[in-house]
Each structure stands twice: as structure tokens, then as C-alpha cells.
Amino acid sequence: MEINTPAVIGPGEFFPVVGVGPHEKPWPTGAQYDPELLENGDRRNVLDHYRYWTVEAIVADLNTKRHKLQIAIENWQHDLNIGSIVRTANAFNASYVHIVGKRDWNKRGAMVTDRYLTVLHHPTIAEFAQWCAENETPIIGIDNVPGSKHLEGAQLPEKCVLLFGQEGAGMSDEGIAICEVLYAIEQYGSTRSMNASAAGAIAMYHWALQHLPRKI
């Protein structure tokens, strides 16, 4: 039996995260369980299905059902939005996340969700493009630049990598040049663009509506 602990506000959260306390004995058996979590409680932001599991066991289970969607983010200025995009990539169980540019990236917004993903680093746009070519993965750019098509009516490939630029600066010229196609999210208010992490979430959900089963 699981014992709920009081709700607390975690760092970077806008709503309470309710964990579970120490697991009532007898403990469940299985290699996936972490004795320390069973003993002390599990207050991580994970699905109930993964409560008390080790990180390694969760990753192994996720690896059996990764989606063909991949996410890439340009990292030249330590943009704080990168972490939020990574967190959304975890929510959609993307097969890979690519950090293009500087190796060190702002992980605060990821809320440790990068532990459950395969994160690859590419120092240059050219090296990232080469990886995608060798792995037969089309690069789809998401940015509202001249020549971008409307995302709303676009059919995205099931296997693809969505490439995002930085907050404010957007995609680099080199990043734009390697994209098979560019899509923009329609804007209806006065602002020219939306937050990069919000755009990432919209684009990933657009892909999911086309390729993942819809639950009723």
C-alpha cells in the first residue's frame, strides 16, 4: 500500500507534485525496484507506474517503446528554454534529443528528465547534419522565418527530427540551410513570435496527433 505525502511545490513547478511515502511491507519484488525508494519514499515527478523504480529500470522500459520522433536544439547562448523543450521531449518519449553547439546546456527547466532520454551532442551544425544523413532522418525546422510553410496543415514524417533555434535569435542561418523544410506556427495576436519552449510543445503535439494513437 502506498502512503501519500503532503503536496509540495517543486523548483520550476506551477502546481503541487505529490509523491509517495515509504512502501508498506511486504515490499514488491523485482529487479526494477530501488530499495532506498521503497524504504524512504519516492517523491520524483514520474508516472505512478514507475513509482519506486530505479532510473535505469525506467530508461530500459522506455527504450522498448521509444517513438520515431527526435528533437534537436541549437545551443550557442546557454538558452534557458532548452531544458523545457527537453522536458517536453521526455513527455512524448522521443528517441533522441540532439544538443547542437555548446556541450553544456541549461538543464534547469528539464527537471532531471534528461536522465530518461538519450541525449546526443554535436559541436557543429555540419556534424549534426551528417549524423542525420547517415541515420536517414529528415530535418524539419520550426521557426517563423521567410519561406516557412504553415505547420497547421503540414503532414510530418513519422521518423524525423524537429530542429529548434534559440529564444529570441531563432534558428541560425546554418541551421536553416540544413532543413528539408521549415514550418511556422500561425500567430494571431500582436507578438511576432512565441516562447521557444511553447513552440516546441505545439510542434511535438502536432506530430503526435498524426502518428500516435488517440485516447478517448
From TrEMBL:
The parts of the chain that form a coiled coil are: none
Keyword set includes Acyltransferase: no
* Keyword check for Transmembrane: no
User: Which processes are annotated in GO (biological process)?
Assistant: methylation; RNA processing
Q: Which residues form the tRNA/rRNA methyltransferase SpoU type domain?
A: 69-205
Molecular function as annotated in GO: RNA binding; RNA methyltransferase activity
Any Pfam family the entry gives:
SpoU_methylase
Database matches in InterPro entries: Alpha/beta_knot_MTases, rRNA_Methyltransferase, SpoU_MeTrfase, tRNA_m1G_MTases_N
Recite the UniProt keywords alphabetically. Methyltransferase, Transferase
State the SUPFAM superfamilies in the record. Answer: alpha/beta knot
Instruction: Please report the name of this protein according to its UniProt entry.
Output: rRNA methyltransferase
UniProt organism field = Candidatus Planktophila sulfonica
